[in-house]
Structures are given as structure tokens and as C-alpha cells.
Amino acid sequence: MSYSIKVLSSYRKRLIRLTPMLFFLYVVNFLDRVNLSYAIDAGMFQDIGAPANLASLIAGIASAMFFVAYAIPQVFTNLKINTIGIRKIFALAFGLWGIITILTGFVTDVPEMYALRFFLGLAEAPFYAGTMFFLGIWFSKEERGLANGFFNAAIPVAGIFGGLIAGSVFTVYHDYPGWRYLFIIEGILALISIPLLYVVLSDFPDDAKWLSKSEKEELDSSILNEEKNKPTKVSWRAALRDHDVILYVLIYFFGVTALYGYTIWLPSIISSFSHVSAAESSFLSDIPYIVAAIALIFILRYSDRSGNRKILTFYIFFIAFAGLALSAFTESIPDLSFVLFTISAIGIFTFLPVFWTMPQEALTREGASAAIGLINALGNLGGVAGPIIVGGLESLTHSFVSGVYSMAAFALIAGLITLLIKKAR
Fold first, then answer.
1. Which residues have C-beta within 8 Å of that of residue 278, sequence separation ≥ 6?
2. In the chain, which residues have pLDDT < 70?
3. Backbone angles phi, psi at 81, to 5 degrees
4. Considering only CA atoms, which of 135, 128, 124 is closest in space to residue 14?
5. For residue 221, is it within any domain?
6. Nearest-CA neighbor of 411 among 341, 339, 338, 363?
7. Calpha distance 317→320 (Å, rounded)
8. Most buried of 157, 178, 422, 424, CB within 10 angstroms?
9. How many beta carbons lie within 10 A of that of residue 83, not counting itself?
């Protein structure tokens, strides 16, 4: 990468100013999204009246309700972010989902849980796609891989914190009322985030008082040149019909199906395969996240150096496929199965930052705002499929083996579709 000293200084400013805050916000976001996984393992659904033989299926449906709602406002909130910026929209989103998460700590029956998860999905909808679009206007093509990586590293880091928080809460308060305190604590974190994001973030580069006029001009020039050279120069309506955008939706759908099948059922699968308590499985859940976080550092460095996002994304999905399939095959050997299950986390949790660089690099600003919203909305319906499929198969077979095999298949399909993308490096 060839930068002038001035551009390099601007890049460091933007990286240091924006990415730690976005990273923190995503940690909070992911904690509020997957805290259900620890509550499930602690017997939450039995506590609120779900029949024991259907608890896994009901829990999967509850998790899926989030993603049904999550898909609804995506394209339109991203178009709004393109005009008014992210701070107002994110402040509203964090406020709503913080309150909803706290209320989840007081839930008394399954219908209430379904309703709260649905409204949580609506509240969280603007965040991820909005941030992907935000990074696309604040960082040039050469800078974006690292910026995406810092942001998406929040997933495994949130998993680490989530396991530590859940394990500590369950150790002190036991499974019940521990899972209730878990939701309340993490909902409060979302509310605390609101004043922080409002102070630290700037909506658009032109609004940033912490950038000099020349630094803004350098960034505007870099983004403008990139816009002119992007292969897909279409309006947002045409972008939604683009061949590659449709493939991105499919890749993201199958990848997310594996991702949320894994994250929602991770503590329960560890408990089932290793025969440990909810507190112990919460702590053990940290290990796959730690391995994924370390791997992400090396994968991102290679991604930016090689620039070959498409083939790298395929290899990442293949690691997830192989690790999951072999973990299910060796389920009768708990230690080996856990090691392989942990290796699969490298693929499960690291595909996101590499994947998202492809539509960011291919689409112009207006097309990207809508297309990224569409990809995130429809792709995240995999969050409906993954938890229900894994939970439903467990209720049917009384084992997580079939569910782990299904996640392996979804990861492989996502990898193969990636090879069909035309306009990607």
C-alpha cells in the first residue's frame, strides 16, 4: 500500500477514532443477540413453562423470531443512514434494544419471549448493515479490510466476554435466577453505550472536526476515485437485481445459518458432548471464540496483502465445514470432538470481514447502501433457519450430532457459491 505521510496520518486518525468505538458497540450488540444461548443451556425455557421434550425446538423458534423481524427494515434504514448519518439511528436502536433486553430478564412465559425476541430484532436491524455502509464511506478500498476486521473481531471477543459473564453469573446465582440477571446486566450495557457513541462518532467525514480540511479532501478524493472505478455503477434499485448481489445474499444466508446454529447452541452442544454444567460450558465456550479471534488477525493480514477475497472466503468456509463434520463424526471421543469443534470456529467467525469487503469494493455508494441492507436482511434469515434446524433436530433425535452435520453442509454450500461471484477480487 502506497500512502503519503498525510494520508497515512489521516488513516491512523480515522482508525483510532472510529474502530474502537464501533468494536465496543458490536460487542454490546452481539452480547444482547446471543445471551439467549447461555440462558437456553441454563434451562430458561423449562423455567418459563416449555415442555422438556420440546424445549430445544421452542428455544430455536424464539431465537428465529429475532431474525424474522431483523430482516424487515434493513434496506430502508440504510438508505436513511445515507442521508442523516448513523448517530441518531444508532442511539434510538441501542435505547430500544437495551430496554427490551432488560425486560427479557422478567419474562414469564413462552409467548412473551417470542414477542420480545421479535421486537429485539426490529431494534437491532439498523446496526450491522449500517456499520458496513459507514465503514465504506470512511475508509478507502486499501484500508477497508483492516477496518472491517477490527469491527468484526468483536464477534469472537463478545463470545469471550459473554462466556465469562454468563459463567460468573451462573456460578454466583446458579442457573436460576442467573439467566434473568444475565439479560438485565447486558441490557444496561446497551443503554450506557448511547452517550458514548454520540460523542465519539461522526456521521460523515465532512462533519468530523477532528480531521483537517486537507485530510477530508484526501479522503473525499480517494473515495471519489474508487466510486468511478467500481465495476457496478447502478442505482440502488438496479443494485438489488444485480447477479452478484443475489449471490451475496445466498452466501450470507448459508454462512449465517451455520454461524447462528453454532452460536445459539454452542454452550448446549458443549454440555451435551462433554457432560458439564451450564456454568462450566459457558466458560468452555470461550475457547472457540479465543481461537477464532487469534486466527482472525492472521486472516485479515493475508486478506489485505493478497487482495484475493473470493478464494480466501471459500477456504474459510471449507475450514468451518471440515471442522464441524469431523467434530460430529468423533462425538464419541469428547476431547477430540471438542478440538475439532473449536477449529471449526475459525471458519464460522472469520468469514464476515473478508466477505463484506467484496460488496463494499464492487458497488457505488448509493447502490451499496441498499444492497448491503438487502444482503444483511435476507442473508440474516439464516438466523431463522440455523437455530430452528439445530434445535429441531435435537428435539427429534435427542442429540446435537445431526445439527452439527447440518451446519457443516451449510458452510460448504456457502463456500461453493462464493466461487460463482463475478465482480470480486
1. 38, 41, 42, 43, 166, 170, 175, 267, 271
2. 1-8, 74-79, 227-241, 362-369, 423-425
3. -60, -35
4. 135
5. no
6. 341
7. 5
8. 178
9. 8
Three state DSSP letters for 79-141: HHHHHHCCHHHHHHHHHHHHHHHHHHCCCCCHHHHHHHHHHHHHHHHHHHHHHHHHHHHHCCH
Q: How far apart are CA 64 and CA 61, in angstroms?
A: 5
Cell matching residue 138 = 470512511
**376-396: b (≥16 Cβ within 10 Å) or e:** bbbbbbbbbbbbbbbbbbbbe
Number of structural domains in the chain = 1
Per-residue pLDDT tens over the stretch 239-272: 566 778 889 999 999 999 999 999 999 999 999 9
- Domain residues for the domain of 169 are 13-204+230-418
Task: Give the three-state DSSP class for 30.
Answer: helix
> Is residue 214 situated within a structural domain?
no
> Model's pTM, two decimal places?
0.83
| Whole-angstrom distance, CA of residue 315 vs CA of residue 336 | 22
Residue 35 within a domain: yes
The grid coordinates listed for 11 are 488513516
Flag whether 63 is in a domain.
yes
**Rg (Cα) of the chain, in Å, rounded?**
21
